[in-house]
Structures are given as structure tokens and as C-alpha cells.
Amino acid sequence: MQTLQEKNKAVVKRFNEAFIVNGDLQAFAEVVAPDFINHTGPVGNNDANATRDFIIKLLRPAFPDIQLDIFDMIAEDDKVVTYKSFTGTFSAPLLGQEPTGKKATLRIIDIVQLKDEKYIAHWSVRDLITTK
């Protein structure tokens, strides 16, 4: 039998692999709660829809050949912390940087809060490393 922490880690892994990397909108709908808040998003534009749109309309076009590496995932109580990176050809503007057409890496430390195996809150620190 899986612990709560193991279940939560599996949900976070699914979100990253199925939705972010593969663009599976059904996975997003199944994993993200309707009242989700992205505390890293701009105030007034930090709900589930804004988060979905950021990934679909900005992140995935910026890295059309996106690859995910999860280096570490730590779960405690209702939170999962992930240290990961997305790498791909930097093809569209992202986070205030213009595309280079070269490989770039977006390193992220995420904190996701879950309830009933759904994302309810998110915080992150991001570092976009580009090659000129």
C-alpha cells in the first residue's frame, strides 16, 4: 500500500510527464483542483487556467522538443518538492528572454501542495540558462 507521500510524488511526476512534456490536457484536468493557486504566478493571473495557459502557450512553444529531468523529489505531509530541469531548443520568448534557436535549460525547484491527489497550490524558483 502506498503512503500519502508516495501517492503525491506519483501525481507530481504524472503532471510533469503527461501534461508538461506531452501536452495531455486530460491529465491536467485530472490532477489540478479547480481552486488551485499558483503563488509564483502574477496576482490576478495565478489560477489553474493561467497555469495551464503558461505551459501550453509559452513553455511548450519555447521548448518544442522539451525534455524533462527530475533530479530529486522530496515529499512531506501534503507537499512535494521537486528539483528538475526542462531542456530543449529555445524557440520562442520565455520569462523575458528572446529565443536563441540553441539548446537551453530551465532549472526549477517546485513546491506543490496536494489534497486528495490534486494540486491545490504551487510555488517555484526558476532559472533559465540560455546558450547564445
From TrEMBL:
Species for this entry: Chitinophaga hostae
Protein name: Ester cyclase
PANTHER family on file: ESTER CYCLASE, POLYKETIDE CYCLASE SNOAL-LIKE DOMAIN
Highest taxon, organism lineage: Bacteria
Pfam families per UniProt: SnoaL
